[in-house]
Amino acid sequence: MEERIRGVLAQHGRMPVDVAGISDRADLYQAGLTSHASVNVMLALEDEFEIEFPQEMLKKKTFESVSAIRQALSELGATV
Amino acid sequence: MSHGEESPAVAATARIASEIAAPAAASVDRDARFPKEAFDALREEKLLSALVPERFGGMGASLAEVARMVSLLSRQCASTGMIYAMHQIQVACLVRHGTTPVLEDYLRCEVVARQALLASATTEIGRGGDVRSSTCAVDVEGDHFRLVKQAPVISYGEVADAVLVTARRTPESPPNDQVLVLCRTPSVTLEPRSGWDTLGFRGTCSLGFLLEAAGSVDEILPQPYGDISAQTMLPTSHLLWASVWLGMADEALSRANAFVRSEARKTPDTLPPSAVQLAELAALHHQLAASVELGISRYCSIADDEEELTTMLFALEMNALKVSGSTLVAELVTRALQICGISGYREDSPYSLGRLLRDAYGAALMVSNHRINTNSAHMLLVAGR
Ligand SMILES: Cc1cc2nc3c(=O)[nH]c(=O)nc-3n(C[C@H](O)[C@H](O)[C@H](O)COP(=O)(O)OP(=O)(O)OC[C@H]3O[C@@H](n4cnc5c(N)ncnc54)[C@H](O)[C@@H]3O)c2cc1C
Q1: Looking at the partner chain, which of B176, B381, B382 has a beta carbon nearest the beta carbon of A32?
Q2: Closest among B39, B14, B16 to B250, alpha carbons compared
Q3: Residue B43 to chain A, least CA–CA distance (Å)
């Protein structure tokens, strides 16, 4: 699942670094993910994993790292 | 926030507003000068540390109280109210996020004991009003930092005791990886690069500067600016700016009301035509007052919940308050002018609306509504369904 998350980040995150080199726990905002780009990442994750983020999950913490995103996706029942 | 049972801080501010800020307002505006007499008086009453908790020696006032104080000052002189609001926004950031011993000492010894005045440099030349990205960067060597920033506008920079400055965390960091740095006198210099001869908010003396600062790394707020912005800087800015606009709206409504009353006295037994326009104005004023009060109670209800403060829904609400409040205040003053007619257009009449009108047009520009709506538009793509 981490690889698919990284794929989405690489395609939609507009980050100035190589996403493949980012560790699971690294802070994505510090790595250059802007709030505008994070919205595109959220939309792309919803398509990729066929889920919908509920309102209460739409906060900074949910998307702060690859492992935080994986955790959120698991909670929503997304499968690999 | 009923008017009957006001706290001593609010009562002292009300007195300063009517006895000191009001008579100075015309010259502050005409000469584009800092409202020194009002700030001397606010310092005397220790009102610059109103928001500082009692454990640091401050008053421990609530944001609702400070909002009321901002409105009272703004009603008499919007520049005075705006400066007071901007200072309190910086204090709120230090209180919540200034968790190093050095920063706590600053609150205790400078903000409380010396009534230090804090300014802000979040915008940067070349980045427009996009405050969530920086070009300049903090340069750390050992336990000291250096920082140079080209600031297009720093309100009351020339008389401030410190400036809270955004910058990239390191020279290698991406533009959005920002920190907030306390740059304090005497180790910060501000070299004026542009003047402040503007349509309104003339007393804020918001010159452009080349800012050069040095200091201890302990003066860098430890949390990422993204968190400080979401939890404190953005909500308190929008709430206290809107409180400035509400104070201005209070005054516009009051002038229109006085004008209509004087018309009614001239023609007893018939309702002057402007009376119906006044009723419309009062309804608009109610909208602004209600949205400010709703915003403040919403913020206060989640102020201790860091995660809730960083939700998109909350950010959308605070953005909506800024955009609608800044639009409403200009509409309100314009309508008050229509009611008062030539008496409102005159500069030498008790119904004069010129300064309020000029100040009101600043509201939509201080962080452009278009930019704020662009941020909200992004969030609405995923939130709010
Ligand atoms: C009274 C007053 C006091 C101020 N005090 C301070 C202070 O103390 N410290 C401080 O840091 N700042 C302060 N500011 C804010 C600062 O001056 C301006 O908000 C900032 O300089 C932006 O200026 P701008 O309007 O030219 O830029 P922009 O925000 O770039 O706006 C200009 C125009 O460009 C459009 N635009 C350009 N790019 C975009 C985009 N990507 N998205 C949306 N719209 C876009 C906007 O819609 C707008 O029409 C103050 C402003 C005022 C009015």
Answers
A1: B176
A2: B14
A3: 38
Residues B208 and B193 sit within 8 Å (Cβ to Cβ) = yes
Kindly state if the Cβ of B354 falls inside 6 Å of ligand 1.
no
Q: Residue A56 sits in which domain range?
A: 2-75
Residue A66 included in any domain: yes
| Residues of chain B above pLDDT 70, percent | 98
State the total domains in chain A: 1
Letter string b/e over residues B80-92, b meaning 16 or more CB atoms within 10 A of that residue's CB: bbbbbbbbbbbbb
Q: What is the pLDDT of residues B243-301, one digit of tens each?
A: 999 999 999 999 999 999 999 999 988 999 999 999 999 999 999 999 999 999 999 99
What is the per-residue pLDDT for B1?
44
* B158/B290 Cα distance (integer angstroms): 36
Q: Quick check: A32 and B175 CB within 8 A?
A: yes
Of the pLDDT bands very low, low, confident and very high (cuts 50, 70, 90), residue B129 is confident
**Closest approach atom of ligand 1 to CA B152:** 21
- Report if residue A60 sits inside a domain: yes
Q: Is residue A80 part of a domain?
A: no
Q: Using a CB–CB cutoff of 8 Å, tell me whether B222 touches chain A.
A: no
Domain of residue A47, CATH code: 1.10.1200.10
